[in-house]
Design brief:
By secondary structure, the protein is mostly beta strands. Helices cover 0% and strands 45% of the residues. The protein has one domain: 3-layer Sandwich (Rieske Iron-sulfur Protein), CATH 2.102.10. The structure holds FE2/S2 (inorganic) cluster (FES). The site of FE2/S2 (inorganic) cluster has 10 residues, from loops.
Length: 106
């Protein structure tokens, strides 16, 4: 688990892109106080999901408006059909930790 930011850095309904040293970026989501993490790059194209619109548990890609469930990574609406990876998130002492190698906030 790597410490990526403080809980207060990401407001409910907001997202944060985590730049990673040795792997593609990760998107962090705050859904009403519960944090989730997925691949940041859309499975349909080269878009950052952290730049998308988070509505409940669905993140809408900023390029073609396909959506994913941030809890499972499942593609919910077209043109997205391929699942994205999800990563465990832990909150401790006001900090957010993501289980992925070499992550740091963008
Ligand atoms: S790049 Fe994400 S829906 Fe097309």
């Amino acid at each position: 688990m790597l410490k990526v930011c403080q809980v207060d850095d990401v407001e409910p309904g907001d997202t944060l892109q985590l730049i990673c040293k040795d792997r593609p970026p990760i998107a962090l989501y705050n859904v009403d106080g519960t944090f989730f993490a997925t691949d940041d790059i859309c499975s349909h194209g080269d878009a950052s999901l952290a730049d998308g619109l988070l509505e409940d548990f669905a993140i809408e890609c900023p390029f073609h408006a396909g959506t994913f469930d941030v809890r499972t990574g499942e593609a919910l609406t077209r043109p997205c059909v391929h699942k994205i990876n999800t990563y465990p998130v832990k909150i401790e002492d006001g900090f957010v930790y993501v289980l992925a190698n070499e992550t740091a906030p963008a």
